[in-house]
Design a protein that fits this description.
Elements (H helix, E strand, L loop, with lengths): L1 E2 L9 E7 L11 H12 L5 E7 L6 H4 L3 E5 L4 H4 L5 H9 L3 E5 L10 H8 L1 E2 L6 E11 L13 E9 L2 E2 L4 E8 L2 E11 L5 E6 L11 H14 L15 H4 L11
Parallel strand pairs: 2-3, 2-4, 4-5, 5-12
Antiparallel strand pairs: 1-3, 6-9, 7-8, 7-10, 10-11, 11-12
Protein name: ThuA-like domain-containing protein
InterPro entries: Class_I_gatase-like, ThuA-like
Organism: marine metagenome
């Protein structure tokens, strides 16, 4: 099932965002709501067409012209690399499609982790990683990177992932200091060889209110556009929202009426 916000068109940069049903306390991990919010932002940028899918697309046509794939979901490695989807997913990476994983989508089970590290540049698993809810300064490790265009460092309250397993080929981009230790919370990867392309991992995004922060949205949208090899203006991507309308959550569908 897909929630198409804009039909895919040739000559445009097509972005597909994938979320799914809720699996966390309401107000956190609002997968589809945030995917729709990010799609609205993406569609403000010239030549970009963003579409949202509830789960892996049942219609292969949605994947045909995709230039960038975005997951805000439960561990995306276990969706991409399961028996049903693996061949389709691997063909997308071989085609050079950009890839972004937001927050828990950076996760993988131990079996899929090594391959996911090659695709994303890093991964989360409770076997070696941990979490910490904290408010800390979000620091740009490489302020000159296009993903950092149009926003400055700021203090962020979020659920931070600790001890991520990063590839030696990944380039740390954003960090926080929590529990007295620096932790990478976003990175880039220039994929090589058969799966040549760009990937962006960002472990932020647990709490819904963070999506009301312009700099927060811009970092993510910049990252998605970077993976699609879209030139990002020095002022950053367009990420305007109607806070009253777009940040308002629908009723929790899991609650009985």
């Amino acid at each position: 099932m897909s929630l198409g916000l804009c039909s895919q068109a040739e000559g445009e940069t097509n972005v597909l965002l994938i979320g799914h049903k809720l699996d966390h306390p309401f107000g956190t991990h609002m997968y589809l709501h945030e995917c729709n919010l990010l799609a609205k932002c993406l569609n403000q940028n010239p030549g970009v067409s963003a579409t949202v899918s509830n789960g892996w697309p049942s219609d292969p046509g949605l994947l045909k012209n995709v230039d960038a794939l975005v997951f805000y979901s439960s561990p995306a490695a276990d969706i991409l690399l399961n028996k049903k989807n693996k061949n389709q997913a691997e063909s997308l990476f071989e085609r050079g499609v950009g890839y972004t994983a937001i927050h828990w989508a950076s996760g993988a089970n131990l079996e899929n982790g090594p391959r996911y590290e090659q695709l994303l540049g890093g991964w989360f698993n409770f076997k070696f990683s941990a979490i910490k809810v904290d408010k800390q300064r979000l620091v740009q490790i490489d302020p000159n990177h296009p993903i950092c265009n149009g926003w400055s460092e700021y203090d962020l309250h979020d659920e931070f992932y600790l001890q991520m397993k990063l590839s030696t080929k990944a380039k740390p981009l954003l960090k926080v200091t929590t529990k007295g230790k620096e932790e990478v919370v976003a990175w880039t990867l220039e994929r090589e060889g058969k799966i040549k392309g760009r990937s962006f991992g960002i472990t932020l995004g647990h709490f819904h209110p963070n999506y009301s922060i312009e700099s927060f949205r811009r970092a993510i949208v910049n990252g998605i556009l970077w993976t699609a090899e879209v030139k990002i203006p020095k002022t950053g991507s367009k990420v305007e929202i109607d806070s009253d309308k777009d940040m308002k959550l629908p009723p929790d569908p899991r609650k009985k009426k």
